[in-house]
Amino acid sequence: MDLNFTAEEQAFRQEVRQWVRENLPPDISHKVHHALRLTRDDMQRWAKILGKKGWLGWGWPKEFGGPGWNAVQRHLFEEECALAGAPRVVPFGPVMVAPVIMAFGTPEQQKRFLPGIASGEVWWSQGYSEPGAGSDLASLKTRAERRGDKYIVNGQKTWTTLGQYGEWIFCLVRTSTEGKPQTGISFLLIDMKSPGITVKPIVLLDGEPEVNEVFFDNVEVPVENLVGEENKGWTYAKYLLAHERTNIADVNRAKRELERLKRIAKAEGLWDDARFRDQIALLEVDIVALEMLVLRVLSAEKSGKQSLDIAGLLKIRGSEIQQRYTELMMLAGGPYAVPFIREAMDAGWQGDHALGGLWPGGAAHCAPLTAMYFNYRKTTIYGGSNEVQRNIVAQTVLGS
Q1: What is the tens place of the pLDDT at every residue in 13-24?
Q2: How many CA atoms lie within 13 A of 76 on its CB side?
Q3: What is the pTM of this model?
């Protein structure tokens, strides 16, 4: 196992770093480095810049319009983007549904859907979770009944991230009630402009409608939008979830946020506090350990060995680390992190304006801390709760 990068890989890193430095809009990187709210325009603007370069589908093979990078190159690209302050690419199109369409879709579906995903023009959403069907996804109840050349879809999806922006949504739907629950699920691609679709935002503790409920009332979906075979959707869902859980680990973002935590600790006078610095050191050790775990997987892939089946483990450790750095930032901000003013996320201030001047002395870097802390309570739940992931790891990795 070789965890060192070759000269060619280091040259590739420099190429990516230079391109990102020249093409990432400064206003967007400023927002990312200071945890200010990103608009739809911010996220899609960066996606289109990557798409024009041919890098939005950075994990795609050349035959589908991607750069054809290996696992190490993909990792280096993600790291350089994160450290430069690039927004995290909304994964539902290029990272999740695109690989499913490539692997199981028809040539017609590939020609129809992949170009819009690769360019960043089409915004995709994910229709998996339902009320009562989250980590236990196989119990989903959204029904798709085939009538001639159409499916009639009825039901509800929930926690649909950024669904208010969605133009298309990939959904797991129940097409059969016979046999095990997993055997009656199909994978549909649905135009969100279809009559009968209603999107209702869910405002979270941080004041943002990041997630949504999506209702389907007799929505007509052409049979040609079925991916793969009817009732085989569970196979495709597992294929997609492996991509999602690895993506959730997001070790590169953790490295960037670690540096922000250090800046906040220094600004708030806590850098000289040995106990607080110990906590930062412990966090940094865990981030390095997570990175080593990711690099072990990359090393196995590069050498042609069987890759470690540890997507669940990466999700567990990555999500816990994300929660810890938001907690430490809150501790560093102290009482100045407490006042929550949604407008401060955009305006970049807090200080004397907070609560009518009751909190003088607060710095701009404190403004987003409460919102980020609240928002990151989700990380150990979405993508399969960590409790469920631990059971999966025990069975598939430890064999117990």
Answers
A1: 999 999 999 999
A2: 20
A3: 0.87
